[in-house]
Amino acid sequence: MDPSTTVIAGKSSLRNLLSVNDLGADGLHEMMRITDFFAEVSARPIPKVPVLRGKTIACAFFENSTRTRLSFEAAAKRLSADTMSFGVSGSSISKGESFKDTIMTIDSLGADAIVVRHPSAGAANQVARWVSKPVVNAGDGSHEHPTQALLDCYTIREALKEKSLSGLRIAVVGDLSHSRVARSNVLAMSAMGAVVTLVAPRTLWPASLDGWPVHEITCDLDPILAHTDLVYLLRLQVERGAGGLLPSLREYTATYGLTARRAAMMPKGALVMHPGPVNRGVEMSSEVAEMPTTLVGHQVANGVLVRMAVLYYLLAGPEGVDAMDVSRDASVLSDAESASLVALDG
Amino acid sequence: MAERERRLVPRGRGVFVPRSQVMSASDVRRALVRMAHEVVERNHGVSELVLVGLQTGGVPLAEQMVAVLEEMEQEPVPLGTLDVAFYRDDVGIRPVVPQAPTSMPCDLAGRSVVLVDDVLFTGRTIRAALNALGDYGRPRAVQLAVVVDRGHRELPIRPDFVGKNLPTRRDEMVDVSEDGVTLGDVVIR
Questions:
Q1: Beta partners for residue B141, in sequence order
Q2: What value of ipTM does the predicted structure carry?
Q3: DSSP assignment, residue B140?
């Protein structure tokens, strides 16, 4: 590892992004603040900055993904980092190479940070124990998906033109038991001040509400719509077995699908979000998907900005690093810069 | 002191001992007025001119200079702000986090840009700023205005408009604030 990475890696207060809880309220706000800078960068004629030049970011996706993977790659490229991409099909996983061996191979190839998506909960935490480089959880089973929560909170903040979500009444609707998006979002939204209500059929409730900072959980969507500023619809995760827990998709749609009729019950200007991919006609109707208050397109666009902020923060050093500690490695700094690294009362 | 210098200093480890005031607030004001005149003279007016203040120390100075220029020439002068964090060459050596917004009022292609900063020291910030400007278009020319040139350049960069040339030792610190310019030492506890 080159010395510059060690300096930052050793001092970084946020080594990895595995869970929204790694950030806390202050970290979330700081990440939003940094994302604003990348929003400006992305609006330029040349939307690219040289800040991570020479760094390599590995995207190790052990589970299919379009938007998350493309958005991490786009983010890395706009920061001038190189990317290595790994997908399960076409890799040596199909020859029987283990998860650990695959990760160690990526590590040996010289990745400076590893972005991991895996169908098992805790996979990213495991990777963080194996390698000494920053690890970003891009979704681990039904556990967490922290960058999705960041981009959703950033999108809400942008739509409201406010810095916090204080007092915002949010309903998170759908497949709570399988959704990593739900868990990460509830943690982040609550930390930023929102009041969250969970809505799902009883069979899709999480096993326990421990660690879910929510206002209430209910089976009925219609009665709460009039008091909801934002409806966050979750995708029905048929591939994780949600289908078996419902009498039928049609019945789910009849009770929980956001139709134009239900959207009309919400306060004027209320927002609708969905992490994608949207099953039109299941979680929301086509009319709702096309409403101007439906932010799905913004969510995707902001995904790149937020992931730029995360990669930048993990690799280029957070605020609050003790400059004195850094100065011990000051041989790489010029004389004048070292000289200015002296103590002073803030 | 220059905000970027201040950020290199850890909290609670020492004290800044001001030794002498080098410029009073009105001296700084007079220097800015003179530099504004020089800018107009050099550029034959202010049309096609853009002032860009470097975050954070250069921005209030650029604002003042724009006010002087507009008063003088009775013509609006666009003002941009630039945070060079993403272009620094010490990324990975110490934490580099942007402090304040970057905004460009217009496309820079074909315009003359005057970069405004408080203190010119090693020249590394200006090098980063030049790279950043290139991403906003191709300016016809870039000029540099600083209130204090304290020497110790590490790159082939020189200012076009200088408030005061101030010979310093490398370990001294130059503080530019609303109260003027102060030269001082840092004493480690």
A1: B112
A2: 0.81
A3: S
Tokens in use for A185?
């979002």
Report the alpha-carbon distance of residue A26 to residue B143 in Å, rounded: 39
Angle between helices A296-316 and A24-42 (to 10 degrees): 110
- Which residue in B56, B94, B189 has the most chain A C-beta atoms within 10 A of its own C-beta, making it the best mutation to test that interface? B94
Q: How far from the centroid of its chain's Cα atoms is residue B4's Cα?
A: 11
Name the pairing type of β-strands B180-188 and B173-177.
antiparallel
Distance from CA of A80 to the nearest CA of B (A): 11
- In angstroms, rounded to a whole number, what is the distance separating the alpha carbons of residues A41 and B86? 10
Residue with tokens 């001038």: A80
Q: What is the 3-state secondary structure (H, E, C) of A251-313?
A: HHHHHHCECHHHHHHCCCCCEEECCCCCCECCCECHHHHCCCCECHHHHHHHHHHHHHHHHHH
- By the CB < 8 Å criterion, does A163 face chain B? no
Q: Among partner residues B14, B91, B152, which is closest to A336 by beta-carbon distance?
A: B152
Residue A238 pLDDT = 75
| pTM for the full predicted model | 0.85
Same domain, yes or no, for A10 and A20?
yes
Q: How far is CA B151 from the centre of its chain?
A: 14
Q: Which of B75, B76, B82, B133 is CA-nearest to residue B108? A: B133
Inspect the interface and report whether the beta carbons of B9 and A342 lie closer than 8 Å: yes
Range of the domain at B38: 3-188
What is the extent of the structural domain holding A222? 147-295
Q: What is the CATH number of the domain that holds A263?
A: 3.40.50.1370
pLDDT at residue A164, rounded to an integer: 87
- State residue A116's pLDDT score: 96
Residues of chain A with pLDDT under 70: 1-13, 317-346
Q: What CATH code is carried by the domain that includes residue B42?
A: 3.40.50.2020
Asked if residue A269 is part of any domain, the answer here is yes
